[in-house]
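Hi V.,

Quick status before I head out on leave. The structure for the redesign project is tokenized and pasted below; the design run finished overnight.
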């Protein structure tokens, strides 16, 4: 099956970061995922994801503004997009894939691994994914000693979500 239209109403990119004794959660509401290839040969699929960083939503307006505007975090005026381009897909069986690829945030590109579960039925293809990154590698941290050490805010960012395509 060729993957044609991404159903944005049933698709999401979410993240969470541990902050002291709890976690804060957020999402990005605007993104575009193109997948080239056919689901009959999953390991040959090529994925290209672009995320509009200005659509970050932590449900805390001041934090959203801080993350978007500050050079120490996303600085969306200078770096408005983040991208992921797959380089290899491994079929692990039981509707599970491992996707390797290059994630670029703030002009810094690092290889990451994404774990994927998928469902292919009723003329739709649903991808559920999760991964994590070290935000410090992408220079997403303040100059505060508590932040730079990961004591106040964890350097680990958990990222998960789903994408639904129609045939």
């Amino acid at each position: 099956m060729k993957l044609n239209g991404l159903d944005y109403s049933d698709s999401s990119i979410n993240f969470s970061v541990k902050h002291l004794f709890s976690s804060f959660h957020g999402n990005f509401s605007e993104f575009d995922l193109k997948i080239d290839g056919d689901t009959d040969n999953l390991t040959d699929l090529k994925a290209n994801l672009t995320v509009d960083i200005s659509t970050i939503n932590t449900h805390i307006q001041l934090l959203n503004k801080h993350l978007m505007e500050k050079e120490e975090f996303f600085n969306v005026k200078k770096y408005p997009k983040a991208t992921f381009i797959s380089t290899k897909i491994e079929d692990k069986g039981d509707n599970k894939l491992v996707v390797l690829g290059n994630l670029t945030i703030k002009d810094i590109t690092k290889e990451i691994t994404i774990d994927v579960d998928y469902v292919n039925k009723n003329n739709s293809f649903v991808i559920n994914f999760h991964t994590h990154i070290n935000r410090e590698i992408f220079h997403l941290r303040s100059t505060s000693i508590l932040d730079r050490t990961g004591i106040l805010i964890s350097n680990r960012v958990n990222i998960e979500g789903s994408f639904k395509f129609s045939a």
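Above is the designed sequence. The mean pLDDT is 90.

G. will cover questions while I'm gone.

Best,
W.
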